[in-house]
Amino acid sequence: MDKVNFYDFTMPKLEAYLMEKGYERFRAKQLFRWVYGQKTIDFALMTNMSKALRQELSEILDFNLPKMVSHLVSTDGTQKFLFDVGGETVESVLIPSEDRMTLCVSSEVGCNIACKFCFTGKQKLKMRLSVSQIMGQYLGAVKVLNDTVRISNIVFMGMGEPLDNPVSVFDAIENLHSPSGCNVSRKKITVSTSGIVPLMPLITKSRTRMAVSLNGANDAVRSFIMPINKKWPLAELLKACREYCDETGDKVTFEYVLLKGITDSIEDARELYRLTKNIPNKINIIPFNEHPGSGFERPAESQIVAFQQELIKLGAHVLRRKTMGRDIFAACGQLRSAYDGHPGRLELAQQGV
Ligand code: SAH
Ligand code: SF4
Fold first, then answer.
1. CA 333 from chain center: how many Å?
2. Are residues 45 and 88 in the same domain?
3. Are strands 101-104 and 153-156 parallel, antiparallel or unpaired?
4. pLDDT confidence tier of residue 16, bands split at 50, 70 and 90
5. Which of 100, 103, 144, 252 could cross-link to 152 by cystine, CB 3.0-4.6 Å?
6. Mean pLDDT for the chain?
7. For this structure, is 91 an active site residue?
8. What is the CATH number of the domain that holds 36?
9. What is the rounded distance in angstroms from the CA atom of residue 299 to the CA atom of residue 269?
10. How far apart (Å, rounded) are the C-alpha atoms in residues 332 and 48?
11. What's the mean pLDDT in 40-64?
12. Confidence of residue 29 (pLDDT cuts 50, 70, 90)
């Protein structure tokens, strides 16, 4: 019989699965305690279960996690982890800042949303990650960091659109958050979406933080760079954001990529402010990280500063996302598994930035 992967289960789902197999419900809790609490997957050590039971469980459960196939450390302290997820690879990036250590995880290999400026989006969707493949990015990073640094925040801003893979993403979030799992506060977990409006209430329900890739301050520009806007235009997107704020009392984070000549004018800044001012929010401006053949450019530094200053002047709460990890090709929107295992191509990528 094929084994099932322990890490693919939330506690309620494992309870249901074990009960269906004829075991007691509390066995799920015991297993969670061993694996996430005691950090052991060795059945020999699970002495509060009979030998016979352990033998049986070992025949139906495995604890396979994606193998880490590379670990790169940038000169600025950013680290990139590459995982084998069955022939494909995904990336996670650890980004240090003054007050936090953020792990940026992937939810898919490739992405069908096809935003024009995004490196991942150039690659059609190849696979949606399973719960264990998402958990594995966190657990793998924790293991290799070996207590030298503690991951404080998790953001779903790596490869893929989290709301295109909602069951795995929200089950993984439950395990990451649960005190019986990894015990990460929900408020330290952020789900970033390009705006799959009908599924945005799932973020609200999970009580994590919502980030929305706005990137355009009107429908014409946004539809040009993010085709998803044709399906769910700004009015609908912003309504979903407002509902999140109303229900959770939290602010939504708007991500806004600065593309030279397309989204970076002072008038764009004003339009962005007008568009968002009635929703409790922070704006995260991200100067475009260039990649070969993108057809877009990063604005001049003076323009980036002027854009931010205009928003500040208007009274927006705006932060500039620092570009980190460029030397290891780990900056925002640069993740793409096709580059994995080709160090020569990393050099190529650097030339573009
Ligand atoms: N799919 C989700 C999460 C991953 S993308 C989403 O789109 O929200 C994370 C962020 O990176 C998004 O805000 C996206 O707009 C931004 N991004 C993508 N490509 C980029 C690039 N080349 N330079 C800067 N930011 C980029
Ligand atoms: Fe997909 Fe997000 Fe990239 Fe758009 S920006 S293509 S949604 S990963």
1. 11
2. no
3. parallel
4. very high
5. 100
6. 92
7. yes
8. 1.10.150.530
9. 14
10. 46
11. 97
12. very high
Q: Are residues 27 and 153 in the same domain?
A: no
Same domain membership, residue 257 and residue 132: yes
14, 36, 62 — which closes off a domain? 62
pLDDT in tens, 237-280: 999 999 999 999 999 999 999 999 999 999 999 999 999 999 99
Same-domain pairing of 97 and 233:
yes
Provide the token pair at 264.
């970076």
75's tokens = 């000169």
How many structural domains does the chain have?
2
User: Which pairs from 339-343 meet CB under 8 Å and 24+ separation?
Assistant: 340/69, 340/70, 340/82, 340/89, 340/91, 341/69, 341/70, 341/82, 341/89
Query: Among 92, 104, 111, which residue has the most ligand 2 atoms within 8 Å of its CB, making it the best to mutate?
Result: 111
Q: Is 179 exposed, middle or buried (0-12, 13-18, 19+ CB in 10 A)?
A: exposed
Per the structure, the complete domain to which residue 225 belongs is given by 67-351
List the residue whose alpha carbon is closest to atom 3 of ligand 1.
157
Enter the pTM of the model.
0.93
- Residue-level pLDDT at 255: 97
Q: Are residues 42 and 71 in the same domain?
A: no
The values of phi and psi at residue 225, to 5°, are -95, -20
Q: How far is the CA of 333 from the centre of ligand 1 (A)?
A: 5
Is there a catalytic annotation at residue 104? no
236, 198, 211, 195 alpha-carbon torsion, rounded to 10°: -60
Query: Are both 17 and 113 inside the same structural domain?
Result: no
* Look-up of token digits 């960091």: 145
Domain shared by 21 and 123, yes or no: no
Name the active-site residue from 111, 115, 118, 332: 332
Q: What are the pLDDT digits (tens) for 131-189?
A: 999 999 999 999 999 878 899 999 999 999 999 999 999 999 999 999 999 999 999 99
Are residue 21 and residue 90 in the same domain, yes or no?
no
Which pLDDT value is given to residue 322?
77
Q: Tokens representing 2?
A: 């094929």
